[in-house]
Fold:
Amino acid sequence: MRENMNEPNAVQVEMPLQRPILLLVDDDRTVHSIAERILSDFAGTILHAYDGREALNLARETHPDLIITDALLPLLDGRELARTLKADADPRLKSVVVMTALYKGARYRCEAFREFQVDAYVEKPIRPERLRAIVETALPAVRS
Amino acid sequence: VSSALDRGALDALLEVAGGDETFVDDLLETYLQQAAVLLLRVHTAVADGDTGALNRHAHTLKGASLNVGANGVARLCRKIENEAVCGILDAGDVTALELEVQKVREEI
Structure:
């Protein structure tokens, strides 16, 4: 499912999307397919974006509860996306999780947490149990 | 004969899909389409001498390859990625990458 609502002049209305909203961001389409399958019983709405700019627009329009984003993205880096959205301070956004094969050492994890304000970090390729745990931790009221 | 696709990774995907083989077939088709586009971008990056773009596209193809168990493709992508960081563009690596993707395509 992809909600395409990133038109620049989109009318600012409350979108009829069932909460919680999870925004998944990755330029790799296999990640979207696998994650959606893993979270097939997610009791909310899963939105998809394929580059950082699209994700930023979609997040500001739909106010997701949780964002899971790749680190290296076209147009806007996933870590910059995290930092920008954290600066927006939207109370509906509970957690931004960065997934990547980039960070293997503690030093880089610290950079992700401190500099880019991400809430959690997960290594790729994503394991089903890890992805479910991230969602359940970020959105404890929702058991996917 | 070594396989271009890791059966263990495919079995794990099948488990995620609850035994739905159509899901895995569709995913592999998505992977091949994506790999074809990324290979074109890798070629363009080498032709342009753009190591930044080469690094990005090789990184994306590596991630997608690991997801479907195309470990040989992922290994070559990692090599290209690492070399690109050092400013190295090796057309021979790209040829090897193409051959490996072709092996995956034939195996699917």
Summary: Chain B touches chain A through 18 residues (CB under 8 Å). The longest helix of chain B spans residues 21-48. Residues 86 and 103 of chain B are 28 Å apart (CA to CA).
